[in-house]
Design a protein that fits this description.
By secondary structure, this protein is mostly helical. About 85% of the residues lie in helices and about 0% in strands. The protein is built from five helices and no strands. The two termini are about 35 Å apart.
């Protein structure tokens, strides 16, 4: 149980730290957020939990295919805000469009036989 609490604390601290840095410097905060910290943490925790680098490699390969659709959020959100939509509505629409983009890529990969 202490292990899971440690994982939670480290992960939460990183997210809070990045958001606090972003308040002071959006560029520095964005740079830190762009570093795949969540992926790095997930692969690290996965390796520690399973002692399997194969699982981490499979996870990493799947991430590669989902990078492009994840850009949907970062393109759509500022466009919607500039069009005058509110923050939460813009975020909700952007998230929904990103989810749709994820499913589209997964569907395409399955049709091409690149994912089982």
């Amino acid at each position: 149980m202490a292990y899971y609490i440690t994982k939670l604390i480290i992960t939460a601290l990183l997210i809070v730290l990045i958001s606090e840095i972003a308040k002071r410097s959006s560029l520095l905060g964005a740079m830190l957020a762009a570093i795949p910290l969540v992926s790095i943490l997930a692969m690290t925790w996965m390796y520690i939990d399973t002692n399997s680098s194969t699982k981490a490699v499979e996870f990493s390969n799947n991430i590669v295919w989902l990078i492009v659709p994840s850009m949907t959020l970062f393109i759509t959100f500022p466009i919607l805000i500039k069009k005058g939509l509110g923050f939460y509505l813009s975020m909700g629409i952007s998230i929904a469009m990103t989810i749709l983009a994820y499913y589209s890529v997964i569907f395409l990969l399955e049709k091409l036989g690149m994912r089982s």
